[in-house]
Specification:
The protein is mainly α. It has one domain. The protein contains three helices and no strands. The N and C termini lie far apart (37 Å).
Length: 91
């Protein structure tokens, strides 16, 4: 249980940061950042995509897939908001 929580936490933080950076850097010039449900849709898609992988690995549980989806969803939402506000990425 402790290992699953650690893996879920690390995966959550890493995917949140990477998805936020990707949306802010790469998608800032597209119209997709204007969509209001972008974070929810991407989070649900990430959870569905991670579910089969998590089901196969014995050390991970469903909490990891949910944490991964929530992290992607929040990262995309924050990145889209920053892109709409015109905040430039720090390089």
């Amino acid at each position: 249980m402790i290992i699953e929580l650690m893996v879920a936490g690390v995966a959550g933080v890493a995917t949140h940061v990477k998805s936020k950076e990707f949306v802010r850097k790469r998608l800032r010039f597209t119209n997709i950042v204007e969509k209001p449900g972008l974070g929810l849709f991407s989070g649900a898609a990430a959870t569905i995509a991670a579910a089969p992988v998590v089901a196969v690995l014995p050390i991970l549980g469903p909490l990891t897939a949910v944490a991964l989806g929530a992290a992607v969803g929040t990262g995309v939402s924050i990145g889209a908001r920053q892109a709409r506000q015109g905040l430039l990425p720090e390089d």
